[in-house]
Amino acid sequence: MAKTKELSKDTRNKIVDLHQVGKTESAIGKQLGLKKSTVGAIIRKWKTYKTTDNLPRSGAPRKISPRGVKMITRTVSKNPRTTRGDLVNDLQRAGTKVTKPTISNTLRRQGLKSCSARRVPLLKPVHVQARLKFAREHLDDPDEDWENVIWSDETKIELFGKNSTRRVWRTKNAELHPKNTIPTVKHGGGNIMLWGCFSAKGPGRLIRVKERMNGAMYREILSENLLPSARSLKMKRGWVFQHDNDPKHFKVLEWPSQSPDLNPIENLWRELKVRVAQRQPQNITALEEICMEEWAKIPATVCENLVKTYRKRLTSVIANKGYITKY
Fold this sequence. Notes:
Mean pLDDT: 86
CATH topology of the largest domain: Nucleotidyltransferase, domain 5
Pfam families: DDE_3 (PF13358), HTH_SB (PF25787), HTH_Tnp_Tc3_2 (PF01498)
CATH architecture of the largest domain: 2-Layer Sandwich
Distance between the termini: 56 Å
Structural class: alpha+beta
InterPro entries: Homeodomain-like_sf, HTH_SB, RNaseH_sf, Tc1-like_DDE_dom, Transposase_5, Transposase_Tc1-like, WH-like_DNA-bd_sf
Radius of gyration: 32 Å
Domain Transposase Tc1-like: 71-140
Domain Sleeping Beauty transposase HTH: 1-52
Strand order of the largest sheet: 3-2-1-4
Domain Tc1-like transposase DDE: 149-287
Largest sheet: 4 strands, mixed
Number of helices: 13
CATH class of the largest domain: Alpha Beta
């Protein structure tokens, strides 16, 4: 049976007005072209609730009781890796039979949704303490100090890898049209390793590392590229060099290992990979050329903003008790 159209508020009010002046339900129905039963229902509602407005509808009762909701919410809060199947079984043992979609809908109403767990560096207690120590010691450093730092790191960029997420607008069943796909090959089709640096004044040098990195090679990279970068960036006297605590690196600035979120160059790598993916290089030579071109195009303002907000990274580390942050 087709669902009838809801009467407008004006029509409902008119029914009540005609009823108040003494007209019968049949007469009102004939005048307005409505069924007598419809007119009667509106009048009864007005007599009971003194309004013709739509009242809140109760809807179907919830499958899971408030107690059950608390139970599954408490379970996933203690162990976020609990599966929907586990929760279905827990409720079934408690006498409530539900489906997995019901579990999802119930938890979503509690502000919880299923997400892919992020992959982050493994942090041992010693790493957590080192990160907290670094953040607390440098939290009050003036912005000028961070502007006088050269940040560095290495990264790998794949030819046909997942360097960035690409979304497309398409119609249904058009997912395999060449315009809506990203070509991939087995094992990524090759990759290149890059070393780069930057400061608040802009990107420094970017070079391709063609052999396996070791201490000797790293020192050679620094001797040939760090000082020229410092000169081109017009760093002030007493500038500081930052890099990670990989054993092959000699120390310049004390740095907590396993802390990519504290190094703003990671944001530049992400920017570079998105730019490179948009140009879709087809071979390793083109990949290297495009990397160099796009690195040089990164605006100095992007670098400046990354350094300007550095104190927020330190604050986040402290707020997260030394664990990995969103950066």
